[in-house]
Amino acid sequence: MDGRNETTGSIAFVIFGVTGDLTKRKLLPALYQLAREKRIPERIDIIGFARRPWDDGLMQQVLTEGIHEYARISPVDNKIISELLSDAKYILSEFEDRKGYDELNRHLDDKKYRKVIFYLATPPDSYANIINNISACQDYAINKEWLRIVVEKPYGRDLNSAQSLENDLRKCFSEEQIFRIDHYLGKETVQNILVFRFANGIFEPLWNKNFIDHVQITVSESTDVGTRAGYFDTSGVIRDMFANHLLQLVTLTAMEAPYAFNAESVRDEKMKVLKSLRPLISKVALENTIRGQYDDTKIAEKVLPGYLHEDRVAKNSITETYLSAKLFIDNWRWANVPFYIRSGKCLPVRATEIAIQFKQIPLSLFNWKNMAGEAPNVLVLRLQPDEGITLSFGAKLPGPVNQIAPVNMEFCYQDAFGSEPPEAYERLLLDCILGDQTLFTRHDEVIEQWRFVTEILKAWEENPVKELPKYQIGSWGPVESEQFISRDNRNWRNLQG
Ligand SMILES: NC(=O)c1ccc[n+]([C@@H]2O[C@H](COP(=O)([O-])OP(=O)(O)OC[C@H]3O[C@@H](n4cnc5c(N)ncnc54)[C@H](OP(=O)(O)O)[C@@H]3O)[C@@H](O)[C@H]2O)c1
Asked: Is residue 253 part of a domain?
């Protein structure tokens, strides 16, 4: 669509935290790509807000460099960058300083913007300040066709802080104006979970407790905490991954078909899953979660530092760099089907997948060597790095020897469609501009996620440990996690890179 011909005025895209990593690596390259594909119906004017002593020119220069470095498709088109950034304005101000907001308001007024997006690309502890400052200035809302605010995760660190942030947001903005980003939902393959389930007839009849033995969801990272160590030590896997991405993947895997594919009905169905999660409270939480920390590990004569030896990590930290958990969804579809969830740092590969393990056959007919096992049917939805879907089953090995071998039916995004899927932020920014909230988390989802997670945090706090189980860098987590799943006569999947 070449919407530029129908321009009805520009959209003011105000980025709080414009000098930060997210803006440079994700937001501007995504806006550039959307402009390049002519997907944005109107002109976008960038207005940056941060405290570094930059000016308009320097901001335009740094963001241009960022697009050159991080654009998904190269070579980049300098004409499009210049159209996107030539009028970009920088407002130098602390988030706490009223004068910055006055300047911003004057600028929005002068240019008579009728459509405004406020994007909070800032540390979460600045959210309340910015929201209150924006809303203190009622002028922002005057003469606007629409006004939207985008909030990055994490939204809070437990139920209380999430509720307080939500109160601030909802005091100033209506739910239709609030876009809470969980960038996992912008990934094509995450959206494909719903298409796969609800645009195909063959799997949905099997998608329940009658045919599924269990579900395994893995989000593994091969890197350590790196430069995020300080932040990570205050959050751990539970806040960084589990409270948002992992629970969102659970809801998409488990939800019922919505009555229509729109924001309200999709989120209504996700919400029902969150409400059906069996609470993990006190002793039950301890029994159904396993935490771990990566340890000093010798690899090729070199000792790599464990978590407790990372810079900016407390020496006696009990923040988990690995977490596995067993969840149940107490509804008719999923009664007593375990959902095993795991995520961690310094694991063997970077991979995200949802594996649906179907039940074993009722009776074995073949008294043959069976290398596929009694339950060979696994459907794997791979979200990263090579997005695709695999269905495993047993087949007769060719030849006179009677043997059953495991084989796969494969679908790979890149092979099928000849291109890599777009970046999550491209989709999410476009949806925000178009006002579609389907892939954004709703108020009640955020609160319900934190209600569930806060009980686990409480159980850990009330039963303090001096140290966490350790695991070697490059292994699949602590041995306790293997024992945890093998007590149910099941095993974690061995993912390949
Ligand atoms: N980076 C990612 O890939 C990523 C991915 C997912 C979610 N997120 C979320 O996105 C948000 C931003 O992340 P980030 O990595 O971009 O953080 P960052 O690199 O630390 O950037 C923070 C930005 O906020 C500004 N800032 C902080 N305090 C300020 C104050 N008091 N007054 C004025 N400006 C202030 C900083 O300005 P100075 O540079 O001048 O300090 C900088 O522009 C976080 O909530 C993060 O969790 C980030």
From this structure: yes
Q: Say how many Å lie between the CA of residue 128 and the centre of ligand 1.
A: 14
Based on the fold, state whether residues 324 and 216 are members of the same structural domain. Answer: yes
DSSP 113-179: -SEEEEEE-S-GGGHHHHHHHHHH-GGGGTT-SEEEEEEESP--SSHHHHHHHHHHHHHHS-GGGEE
Q: Based on the fold, state whether residues 145 and 189 are members of the same structural domain.
A: no
**Structural domains counted in the chain:** 2
Q: What is the tens place of the pLDDT at every residue in 21-52?
A: 999 999 999 999 999 999 988 899 999 999 99
CB distance 282 to ligand 1 below 6 Å: no
Q: Which domain holds residue 51?
A: 3-152
The DSSP letter of residue 279 is P
Model confidence, pTM: 0.94
- Neighbouring CB atoms inside 10 A of 487's CB total 9
Asked if the structure places residue 371 within a domain, the reply is: yes
Two tokens, residue 347: 């694991």
Say if ligand 1 is within 6 A of residue 406 CB.
Answer: no
Element (H, E) at 61: helix 56-70
Q: Tell me: the pLDDT tens digits for 273-320?
A: 999 999 999 999 999 999 999 999 999 889 999 999 999 999 999 999
Catalytic residues: 245
